[in-house]
Design a protein that fits this description.
Helices cover 79% and strands 0% of the residues. By secondary structure, the chain is mainly α.
Length: 98
């Protein structure tokens, strides 16, 4: 349980850092934000499917796959979700206060 929480919080921190460090990578409109959010969901489906496919391999190799495949997929999904929230916020009154 602690590893799951740590992995998720670490991925969220990396996603927020990437958004703050590289603002030019943000989608320009709502449609692009939606496409990135959908790609993030499908990336997570693919990563989880791969982990289910290789379940039963030695623990060290499985942990390497979790950190090497699932970790980046989680970072991208969270980053795409943050981009989608930014795009939706720009449509509201909160987007006019910038």
């Amino acid at each position: 349980m602690a590893f799951t929480l740590t992995l998720t919080l670490g991925a969220a921190l990396v996603a927020v850092w990437l958004d703050a460090r590289f603002p030019a990578l943000r989608p320009q409109g709502l449609a692009q934000g939606f496409v990135h959010a959908a790609l993030g969901v499908f990336t997570m489906f693919g990563a989880v499917g791969l982990l289910q496919l290789v379940y039963g391999i030695p623990d060290g190799a499985f942990m390497a796959l979790v950190l090497g495949v699932f970790g980046p997929a989680l970072v991208y999904a969270l980053l795409a979700g943050l981009w989608m929230l930014r795009a939706l916020a720009s449509l509201t009154i909160a987007g006019r206060w910038r």
